[in-house]
Amino acid sequence: MKIKVLIVDDSALIRSVMKEIIGSQPDMEVVGVAPDPIIARDLIKQTNPDVLTLDVEMPRMDGLDFLEKLMRLRPMPVVMVSSLTERGSEITLRALELGAVDFVTKPKISIQSGMQEYTDMIADKIRAASKASIRPRAIPHPDAAKASGGEPLPQMRNPLLSSEKLIIIGASTGGTEAIKEFLIRMPSDCPGILITQHMPEGFTRSFAQRLDNLCKISVKEAAGNERVLPGHAYIAPGHSHLKLVRSGANYMTQLDQGPPVNRHRPSVDVLFNSAAACAGKNAVGVILTGMGKDGALGMLEMRNAGAYNFAQDEASCVVFGMPREAIAVGGAHEVLALQAMPGRVLSYLAEHGSRALRV
Protein backbone atom coordinates (compact mmCIF):
# COMPACT_ATOMS: atom_id res chain seq x y z
CA MET A 1 0.00 0.00 0.00
CA LYS A 2 1.36 3.38 -1.00
CA ILE A 3 1.35 6.37 1.34
CA LYS A 4 -1.35 8.76 0.11
CA VAL A 5 -0.25 12.40 0.32
CA LEU A 6 -2.28 15.57 -0.11
CA ILE A 7 -0.28 18.75 -0.85
CA VAL A 8 -1.64 22.11 0.35
CA ASP A 9 0.30 25.22 -0.74
CA ASP A 10 -0.69 28.54 -2.29
CA SER A 11 2.37 28.56 -4.59
CA ALA A 12 1.81 26.73 -7.87
CA LEU A 13 5.57 26.29 -8.24
CA ILE A 14 5.96 24.72 -4.79
CA ARG A 15 2.96 22.47 -5.42
CA SER A 16 4.57 21.31 -8.65
CA VAL A 17 7.96 20.66 -7.03
CA MET A 18 6.43 18.82 -4.07
CA LYS A 19 4.27 16.75 -6.40
CA GLU A 20 7.31 15.75 -8.43
CA ILE A 21 9.36 14.90 -5.33
CA ILE A 22 6.64 12.84 -3.66
CA GLY A 23 5.52 11.21 -6.89
CA SER A 24 9.09 10.01 -7.53
CA GLN A 25 8.99 7.81 -4.42
CA PRO A 26 7.95 4.20 -5.13
CA ASP A 27 6.01 3.94 -1.87
CA MET A 28 4.07 7.21 -2.18
CA GLU A 29 1.39 8.76 -4.34
CA VAL A 30 0.01 12.27 -4.51
CA VAL A 31 -3.78 11.99 -4.24
CA GLY A 32 -4.43 15.70 -4.61
CA VAL A 33 -3.09 19.26 -4.53
CA ALA A 34 -4.86 22.30 -3.09
CA PRO A 35 -4.01 26.02 -3.22
CA ASP A 36 -5.71 26.76 0.10
CA PRO A 37 -7.33 25.05 3.12
CA ILE A 38 -10.88 25.55 1.85
CA ILE A 39 -10.23 23.36 -1.18
CA ALA A 40 -8.10 21.03 0.92
CA ARG A 41 -11.02 20.41 3.26
CA ASP A 42 -13.08 18.93 0.45
CA LEU A 43 -10.14 16.95 -0.94
CA ILE A 44 -9.52 15.35 2.46
CA LYS A 45 -13.05 14.00 2.42
CA GLN A 46 -12.67 12.73 -1.15
CA THR A 47 -9.18 11.21 -0.99
CA ASN A 48 -8.72 10.24 2.70
CA PRO A 49 -4.94 10.93 2.64
CA ASP A 50 -2.45 9.31 5.00
CA VAL A 51 -0.32 12.46 5.27
CA LEU A 52 -1.00 16.13 4.61
CA THR A 53 1.76 18.60 3.68
CA LEU A 54 0.59 22.06 4.72
CA ASP A 55 1.94 25.50 3.90
CA VAL A 56 2.28 27.84 6.86
CA GLU A 57 1.04 31.12 5.38
CA MET A 58 -1.86 30.96 2.90
CA PRO A 59 -4.84 33.04 1.71
CA ARG A 60 -8.50 32.49 2.65
CA MET A 61 -7.51 30.60 5.83
CA ASP A 62 -4.25 30.71 7.76
CA GLY A 63 -2.39 27.40 7.97
CA LEU A 64 -2.49 27.48 11.78
CA ASP A 65 -6.24 28.04 11.90
CA PHE A 66 -6.77 25.15 9.50
CA LEU A 67 -4.40 22.90 11.47
CA GLU A 68 -6.19 23.65 14.75
CA LYS A 69 -9.56 22.75 13.22
CA LEU A 70 -8.12 19.66 11.52
CA MET A 71 -6.58 18.29 14.73
CA ARG A 72 -9.82 18.86 16.61
CA LEU A 73 -12.22 17.45 14.01
CA ARG A 74 -10.21 15.00 11.92
CA PRO A 75 -6.74 14.34 13.43
CA MET A 76 -4.20 13.14 10.88
CA PRO A 77 -0.42 13.31 10.28
CA VAL A 78 0.61 16.76 9.04
CA VAL A 79 4.05 17.88 7.84
CA MET A 80 4.35 21.66 7.68
CA VAL A 81 6.16 23.34 4.79
CA SER A 82 7.81 26.45 6.19
CA SER A 83 9.90 29.38 5.00
CA LEU A 84 13.26 30.11 6.63
CA THR A 85 12.23 33.39 8.23
CA GLU A 86 11.87 34.52 11.82
CA ARG A 87 8.11 34.69 11.40
CA GLY A 88 8.15 31.35 9.61
CA SER A 89 10.03 29.67 12.45
CA GLU A 90 7.69 31.07 15.10
CA ILE A 91 4.60 29.92 13.19
CA THR A 92 6.13 26.50 12.58
CA LEU A 93 6.85 25.99 16.28
CA ARG A 94 3.27 26.95 17.03
CA ALA A 95 2.14 24.39 14.43
CA LEU A 96 4.13 21.67 16.20
CA GLU A 97 2.39 22.64 19.45
CA LEU A 98 -0.96 22.30 17.68
CA GLY A 99 -0.15 18.75 16.60
CA ALA A 100 1.86 18.80 13.36
CA VAL A 101 4.23 15.84 13.29
CA ASP A 102 7.17 17.59 11.64
CA PHE A 103 8.16 20.28 9.18
CA VAL A 104 10.33 20.86 6.14
CA THR A 105 11.67 24.13 4.83
CA LYS A 106 10.53 25.26 1.41
CA PRO A 107 12.79 23.96 -1.37
CA LYS A 108 15.31 26.35 -2.89
CA ILE A 109 14.29 25.92 -6.50
CA SER A 110 17.41 27.65 -7.83
CA ILE A 111 19.82 25.25 -6.11
CA GLN A 112 19.53 22.02 -8.06
CA SER A 113 22.71 20.46 -6.65
CA GLY A 114 21.06 19.81 -3.30
CA MET A 115 17.70 18.58 -4.59
CA GLN A 116 18.44 14.87 -4.09
CA GLU A 117 19.30 15.44 -0.44
CA TYR A 118 16.19 17.59 -0.08
CA THR A 119 14.08 14.90 -1.77
CA ASP A 120 15.39 12.25 0.60
CA MET A 121 14.63 14.47 3.60
CA ILE A 122 11.03 15.13 2.54
CA ALA A 123 10.46 11.45 1.78
CA ASP A 124 11.86 10.40 5.17
CA LYS A 125 9.66 12.87 7.02
CA ILE A 126 6.52 11.79 5.16
CA ARG A 127 7.29 8.11 5.85
CA ALA A 128 7.78 8.86 9.53
CA ALA A 129 4.61 10.95 9.64
CA SER A 130 2.58 8.14 8.06
CA LYS A 131 3.51 5.92 11.03
CA ALA A 132 3.21 8.61 13.69
CA SER A 133 0.92 8.25 16.66
CA ILE A 134 -1.59 11.10 16.45
CA ARG A 135 -3.41 11.73 19.72
CA PRO A 136 -6.06 14.26 20.71
CA ARG A 137 -4.46 17.01 22.72
CA ALA A 138 -5.42 20.12 24.61
CA ILE A 139 -4.68 23.10 22.39
CA PRO A 140 -2.02 25.24 24.14
CA HIS A 141 -2.36 28.99 24.21
CA PRO A 142 0.52 30.70 22.37
CA ASP A 143 0.98 33.27 25.13
CA ALA A 144 1.11 30.80 28.00
CA ALA A 145 2.80 32.14 31.09
CA LYS A 146 5.66 30.45 32.89
CA ALA A 147 4.66 26.83 33.43
CA SER A 148 3.78 25.78 36.95
CA GLY A 149 5.47 22.43 36.41
CA GLY A 150 2.52 20.30 37.48
CA GLU A 151 2.77 18.20 40.61
CA PRO A 152 5.74 18.84 42.92
CA LEU A 153 8.80 16.87 41.90
CA PRO A 154 11.83 15.75 43.89
CA GLN A 155 14.27 18.55 44.60
CA MET A 156 18.03 18.28 44.56
CA ARG A 157 19.40 17.77 48.08
CA ASN A 158 21.90 20.54 47.57
CA PRO A 159 21.88 22.79 44.52
CA LEU A 160 25.67 23.08 44.71
CA LEU A 161 26.03 19.36 44.10
CA SER A 162 23.87 19.46 40.98
CA SER A 163 26.59 21.27 39.03
CA GLU A 164 28.53 18.00 38.94
CA LYS A 165 25.67 16.15 37.29
CA LEU A 166 24.45 16.76 33.77
CA ILE A 167 21.33 15.79 31.79
CA ILE A 168 22.00 15.00 28.13
CA ILE A 169 18.96 14.86 25.80
CA GLY A 170 18.48 13.77 22.19
CA ALA A 171 15.31 13.92 20.09
CA SER A 172 13.98 14.22 16.55
CA THR A 173 10.45 13.87 15.11
CA GLY A 174 7.96 14.97 17.77
CA GLY A 175 10.82 16.11 19.96
CA THR A 176 10.00 19.80 20.20
CA GLU A 177 6.90 19.09 22.26
CA ALA A 178 8.55 16.23 24.19
CA ILE A 179 11.48 18.47 25.14
CA LYS A 180 9.05 21.18 26.24
CA GLU A 181 7.14 18.71 28.43
CA PHE A 182 10.41 17.58 30.00
CA LEU A 183 11.91 21.03 30.60
CA ILE A 184 8.83 22.70 32.07
CA ARG A 185 9.05 20.19 34.94
CA MET A 186 12.67 21.03 35.75
CA PRO A 187 13.27 23.07 38.92
CA SER A 188 15.45 26.16 38.77
CA ASP A 189 18.31 24.36 40.57
CA CYS A 190 18.43 21.31 38.27
CA PRO A 191 21.72 20.20 36.71
CA GLY A 192 22.89 21.74 33.46
CA ILE A 193 21.15 20.27 30.40
CA LEU A 194 22.52 19.81 26.88
CA ILE A 195 20.07 19.08 24.06
CA THR A 196 20.33 18.01 20.46
CA GLN A 197 17.05 18.22 18.55
CA HIS A 198 17.14 17.61 14.80
CA MET A 199 16.17 21.02 13.48
CA PRO A 200 17.53 23.22 10.67
CA GLU A 201 19.42 26.45 11.13
CA GLY A 202 17.05 29.36 11.62
CA PHE A 203 14.66 27.47 13.89
CA THR A 204 16.74 26.50 16.92
CA ARG A 205 17.07 30.03 18.28
CA SER A 206 13.31 30.59 18.13
CA PHE A 207 12.79 27.17 19.73
CA ALA A 208 15.14 28.06 22.59
CA GLN A 209 13.51 31.45 23.13
CA ARG A 210 10.06 29.87 23.19
CA LEU A 211 11.16 27.38 25.85
CA ASP A 212 12.91 30.07 27.86
CA ASN A 213 9.58 31.91 28.14
CA LEU A 214 7.82 28.77 29.41
CA CYS A 215 10.33 27.20 31.78
CA LYS A 216 11.64 27.90 35.27
CA ILE A 217 15.16 27.22 34.00
CA SER A 218 17.01 29.37 31.46
CA VAL A 219 17.02 27.95 27.94
CA LYS A 220 19.25 29.22 25.14
CA GLU A 221 20.76 28.22 21.83
CA ALA A 222 24.28 27.03 22.58
CA ALA A 223 26.96 29.50 21.48
CA GLY A 224 30.02 27.37 22.22
CA ASN A 225 32.81 27.97 24.74
CA GLU A 226 30.36 28.69 27.54
CA ARG A 227 30.34 27.12 30.96
CA VAL A 228 27.50 24.66 31.58
CA LEU A 229 25.61 26.01 34.59
CA PRO A 230 22.93 24.50 36.83
CA GLY A 231 19.45 25.68 35.96
CA HIS A 232 20.41 26.22 32.32
CA ALA A 233 19.65 24.25 29.14
CA TYR A 234 21.72 24.59 25.98
CA ILE A 235 20.19 23.60 22.61
CA ALA A 236 22.41 22.64 19.67
CA PRO A 237 22.15 25.25 16.89
CA GLY A 238 20.88 23.96 13.57
CA HIS A 239 24.22 24.54 11.86
CA SER A 240 26.55 22.66 14.25
CA HIS A 241 27.06 19.57 16.35
CA LEU A 242 26.97 20.27 20.08
CA LYS A 243 29.67 18.67 22.22
CA LEU A 244 30.42 18.58 25.94
CA VAL A 245 34.05 19.26 26.85
CA ARG A 246 36.06 19.89 30.00
CA SER A 247 38.08 22.97 30.86
CA GLY A 248 39.78 22.46 34.18
CA ALA A 249 37.05 21.83 36.75
CA ASN A 250 34.26 23.10 34.48
CA TYR A 251 32.05 21.54 31.84
CA MET A 252 31.85 23.64 28.67
CA THR A 253 29.90 23.63 25.42
CA GLN A 254 31.68 23.25 22.10
CA LEU A 255 30.30 23.64 18.58
CA ASP A 256 31.58 21.54 15.69
CA GLN A 257 30.72 22.11 12.03
CA GLY A 258 32.09 18.75 10.95
CA PRO A 259 30.19 16.57 8.46
CA PRO A 260 26.74 15.18 9.31
CA VAL A 261 26.63 12.01 11.41
CA ASN A 262 23.75 9.61 10.70
CA ARG A 263 22.76 12.20 8.07
CA HIS A 264 22.27 14.83 10.78
CA ARG A 265 24.04 17.96 11.93
CA PRO A 266 23.48 18.44 14.80
CA SER A 267 23.71 14.75 15.66
CA VAL A 268 22.58 13.13 18.90
CA ASP A 269 25.38 10.55 18.65
CA VAL A 270 27.98 13.34 18.59
CA LEU A 271 26.56 14.87 21.78
CA PHE A 272 26.17 11.51 23.55
CA ASN A 273 29.68 10.38 22.61
CA SER A 274 31.16 13.61 23.96
CA ALA A 275 29.24 13.16 27.23
CA ALA A 276 30.53 9.60 27.52
CA ALA A 277 34.10 10.78 26.98
CA CYS A 278 34.24 13.62 29.49
CA ALA A 279 31.34 13.20 31.94
CA GLY A 280 31.00 9.43 32.41
CA LYS A 281 29.09 8.67 35.61
CA ASN A 282 28.17 12.32 36.06
CA ALA A 283 25.83 12.20 33.04
CA VAL A 284 22.20 11.15 32.80
CA GLY A 285 21.14 10.36 29.24
CA VAL A 286 17.61 10.86 27.87
CA ILE A 287 16.49 9.81 24.40
CA LEU A 288 13.08 10.97 23.23
CA THR A 289 10.78 10.46 20.26
CA GLY A 290 12.31 10.52 16.79
CA MET A 291 12.79 8.63 13.55
CA GLY A 292 15.97 6.77 12.68
CA LYS A 293 18.77 5.51 14.90
CA ASP A 294 20.76 8.64 15.74
CA GLY A 295 21.74 8.50 19.40
CA ALA A 296 21.48 4.73 19.90
CA LEU A 297 25.18 3.91 19.79
CA GLY A 298 26.06 7.13 21.59
CA MET A 299 23.71 6.20 24.43
CA LEU A 300 25.39 2.80 24.64
CA GLU A 301 28.76 4.58 24.88
CA MET A 302 27.35 6.68 27.72
CA ARG A 303 26.16 3.55 29.53
CA ASN A 304 29.52 1.86 29.09
CA ALA A 305 31.16 5.00 30.53
CA GLY A 306 28.96 4.79 33.64
CA ALA A 307 26.08 7.12 32.77
CA TYR A 308 22.50 6.23 33.70
CA ASN A 309 20.08 6.42 30.77
CA PHE A 310 16.35 6.78 30.12
CA ALA A 311 14.37 6.11 26.92
CA GLN A 312 10.85 7.25 26.11
CA ASP A 313 8.36 4.41 25.72
CA GLU A 314 6.52 3.61 22.50
CA ALA A 315 3.06 4.54 23.77
CA SER A 316 4.04 8.17 24.44
CA CYS A 317 6.27 8.66 21.37
CA VAL A 318 5.15 10.31 18.17
CA VAL A 319 7.74 8.13 16.40
CA PHE A 320 9.43 5.34 18.37
CA GLY A 321 12.46 4.93 16.08
CA MET A 322 15.30 6.49 18.09
CA PRO A 323 14.25 5.16 21.52
CA ARG A 324 13.60 1.71 20.02
CA GLU A 325 17.12 1.57 18.57
CA ALA A 326 18.71 2.75 21.83
CA ILE A 327 16.78 0.10 23.78
CA ALA A 328 17.66 -2.60 21.22
CA VAL A 329 21.42 -2.05 21.53
CA GLY A 330 21.23 -1.99 25.34
CA GLY A 331 21.84 1.71 25.88
CA ALA A 332 18.86 2.43 28.16
CA HIS A 333 18.54 1.46 31.82
CA GLU A 334 14.87 2.46 32.08
CA VAL A 335 12.01 2.92 29.60
CA LEU A 336 9.35 5.38 30.70
CA ALA A 337 6.34 7.32 29.47
CA LEU A 338 7.19 10.94 28.75
CA GLN A 339 4.91 12.13 31.55
CA ALA A 340 6.80 10.06 34.11
CA MET A 341 10.31 10.80 32.90
CA PRO A 342 11.02 14.25 34.47
CA GLY A 343 10.04 13.04 37.94
CA ARG A 344 12.03 9.81 37.63
CA VAL A 345 15.14 11.63 36.34
CA LEU A 346 14.96 14.08 39.24
CA SER A 347 14.42 11.21 41.70
CA TYR A 348 17.51 9.47 40.36
CA LEU A 349 19.53 12.69 40.65
CA ALA A 350 18.25 13.31 44.18
CA GLU A 351 19.28 9.78 45.16
CA HIS A 352 22.73 9.97 43.58
CA GLY A 353 23.59 13.67 43.79
CA SER A 354 25.48 13.36 47.06
CA ARG A 355 27.66 10.68 45.48
CA ALA A 356 28.41 12.62 42.28
CA LEU A 357 31.88 11.74 41.08
CA ARG A 358 34.51 14.43 40.76
CA VAL A 359 36.54 14.14 37.58
UniProtKB/TrEMBL annotation:
Protein's gene: cheB
PROSITE patterns, per the entry: CHEB, RESPONSE_REGULATORY
Gene3D superfamilies: 3.40.50.2300, Methylesterase CheB, C-terminal domain
Record function comment: Involved in chemotaxis. Part of a chemotaxis signal transduction system that modulates chemotaxis in response to various stimuli. Catalyzes the demethylation of specific methylglutamate residues introduced into the chemoreceptors (methyl-accepting chemotaxis proteins or MCP) by CheR. Also mediates the irreversible deamidation of specific glutamine residues to glutamic acid.
Reactions that this protein is recorded to catalyse: L-glutaminyl-[protein] + H2O = L-glutamyl-[protein] + NH4(+); [protein]-L-glutamate 5-O-methyl ester + H2O = L-glutamyl-[protein] + methanol + H(+)
Domain CheB-type methylesterase intervals: 160-352
UniProt-recorded name of the protein: Protein-glutamate methylesterase/protein-glutamine glutaminase
Post-translational modification: Phosphorylated by CheA. Phosphorylation of the N-terminal regulatory domain activates the methylesterase activity.
Modified residues (4-aspartylphosphate): 55
NCBIfam families: PRK00742.1, PRK12555.1
First-listed, main subcellular location of the protein, grouped into a coarse class: cytoplasm
UniProt entry keywords in alphabetical sequence: Chemotaxis, Cytoplasm, Hydrolase, Phosphoprotein
Transmembrane segments: none
Source organism phylogeny: Bacteria, Pseudomonadati, Pseudomonadota, Betaproteobacteria, Burkholderiales
Biological source species: Herbaspirillum hiltneri N3
Documented EC number(s): 3.1.1.61, 3.5.1.44
Response regulatory domain boundaries: 4-121
UniProt key word Phosphoprotein: yes
Active site per database record: 172, 198, 294
Class of this enzyme: hydrolase
Sequence similarity: Belongs to the CheB family.
Region (Disordered): 133-153
Compartment(s) of residence: Cytoplasm
Domain characteristics, as noted in the entry: Contains a C-terminal catalytic domain, and an N-terminal region which modulates catalytic activity.
